Predict the 3D structure of the following.
Amino acid sequence: ARAVKPFLDIDQCALLDAEIKFQTGFGRGTMPKGAIHGDLFCDNVLFAGDRVAGIIDFGFAATDFFAYDLAITVNDWCVDAGTGALLPDPTQAMTAAYAAVRPLIDDEREAWPSLLRAAALRFWLSRLYDLHLPRSGELTHAHDPSHFERVLRARVATTPAFPPTS
């Protein structure tokens, strides 16, 4: 955040400062953790017809909250590209399918809005960094950071509860 702040306008700085303050202390909870992909965006899933044939780009893989991985995925697969708002039907479908395999505990459901915001913040910052401070020799493609700025603003404006799964 400190590295990209000089490239931000006043409104973006205010958003960044407020979100960092909001996220301070988050992540110390008791949610289940394990190996996550950390970047399960549409372009990192390969399909053969309508079936998943492969998953690529494990560069952000880490040990973290399982529900955070779901939030990252929902923030990419289930949003209106123009506004960053969550699309109810795809969000419901994805979270219900996930919960059918691994039901979320109450702590994860309660943290859902913060997880969505943390995921949006992370990708806004990483895209800003890749755009303004590219590292020589890196294979990283600089994506437009404004998309995840819109997603973050949408998550701040609306506190989406975890969709019902039944």
